[in-house]
Structure prediction request, 252 residues.
Amino acid sequence: MSGTDHLIRTDHPDGVTEICLNRVPVNALSPGFLFDLADLLKELEADDIVRAVVISSPFKVLSAGLDLKEAQSFTLEQQHAIVEALNVGFLALFAFPKPTVAAINGAAIAGGLFFVLSSDLRVAGPKASLGLAEVRVGADFPTGPLEIARGTLSPDMLRRLMLTGQPIRAEAALDAGIVDVLENDTEAVLPRALQEARTLAALPAIAYASIKRQIRGGVIATIEGAMKNGANAPAGGWFNAETKQAMQRMIG
Prediction:
């Protein structure tokens, strides 16, 4: 077992490595958290023993997205830092050449949903809920998450999640193809995710990486191109005149 305080690496049999998101209490996103994820994925990509990765959480949520109380006071520099981290961290997961499986044992909301959308296969439990709440907090989407959502959600689900900001339950996510496996018991989610990862790990690795790149290469190129052209530091920052007040309403 290794990693950082908020990312715990555990190596399982058959070449499966688990990354446990461990940023207390709800895996709120921060630049350090997301840049560390990108660094760990780079390490796992170079490790020939690792053949598949599972993303998990020990909490009742997978990730609740940004800490809105903290985000209200972000300076321009801090807004640029989190935008860059969202782009870099989730691109690293989306482009990771080895199989990835998300174990979704609770809510995956706003930025937290991109741990799910960036993974290859998604296993959810009965208490899972999935949503993109950005419109409700008065913020649009950084390029990386936006393109990943476009590349992985159907047009109707993209419209529904992005323009209402309301989450959907696990059953609806299964019907929509956002979730691949639905377990009736929360305790069964991680074991099933590890099982699915072992199955994917047994596939020919070179072909898997090549086909994954064929599927996702266009989205990856779009994100990388945007980042080179200033998408990590949007002019005027990420937030707008409505954002702080909208965040306050969300917090209650």
Observations:
- The chain has ten helices and eleven strands.
- The longest strand covers residues 16-21.
- The chain has one domain: 2-192.
- The chain has a mean pLDDT of 96.
